[in-house]
Specification:
CATH class of the largest domain: Alpha Beta
Structural class: alpha+beta
CATH architecture of the largest domain: 2-Layer Sandwich
Low-confidence stretches: none
Radius of gyration: 18 Å
Mean pLDDT: 95
Order of helices and strands: EEEHEHHHEEEHHHHHEEHEE
CATH topology of the largest domain: Ribosomal Protein S5, domain 2
Length: 291
Amino acid sequence: MRTVRAPATSANLGSGFDTFGVALGRPADVVRVERAECTTIEVTGAGAQYIPEDPDRNTVGAVAEALDAPAHIQIDKGVRPASGLGSSAASAAGAALALNDLYDRGLSRQELVGIAAEGEAVVAGIAHADNVAPALLGGFTIATADGIHSVPANIPLVVCLPEEPISTRDARRVVPQTATIEELVETVGNASTLTLGMCRSNPELVGRGMADEVVTPHRAALIDGYDDAVAAAEEAGAHGVTVSGSGPGVLAVCPADARRDVASAMVGAFGENGENARAYRTWVGSGAEIL
């Protein structure tokens, strides 16, 4: 048997659509695997009632098949599904790391990213690595067709999670198919600023670099109270705020000593809009670990 803690993640970070991602210090899934003749899945925890236990319809089933590693897999969900915090990626990454070790497949974490991404396709309809890469590698990651790059970063974060879910498939439908040259130039500049900020562990640069006028406004429109939550977070000291992944989670970068105020401000703003929400005071964390 192997037990793995797999972190929540935040993808896109505003200006890095389908490319940037970070591992979060909290929350996390706990995935336990045990050798078996055929794969079975048991899910408990946050939103477990919405997650299929059929291996053909669950991310970890695809991972077990890809590794030729049948197992009884128990997933204790700390990362709620349809949250924008990489819920399915946490499970896929945790299963990939656990099964690779249990069956001694000898694959590196970089190699496991591709396998976990295939698991993601079961839920999202497309194999993308912007969540599974940080879930496995930790820190700040850049996922491109040429490979995955990662750097550690010391960045304080707050994630505010409204109760109303948004599915990844719905969020992808609102993404625009074109952008102007002016929008392209602005996005490249912001993404470069964010990357520099991560490399320097500079929250102010990261917050400034999250600004995005191409994808984020369309996804933000799906989140009731988003604009008020952003304004409240910035007034409380946040350097930058954006949609986490496909939403409805909202990610704020702020000084470490402002996290409590930013979290309270965002929860309050959503509450004033009739949306129950909870907040995690967190940070850019490490990747999945075998316990």
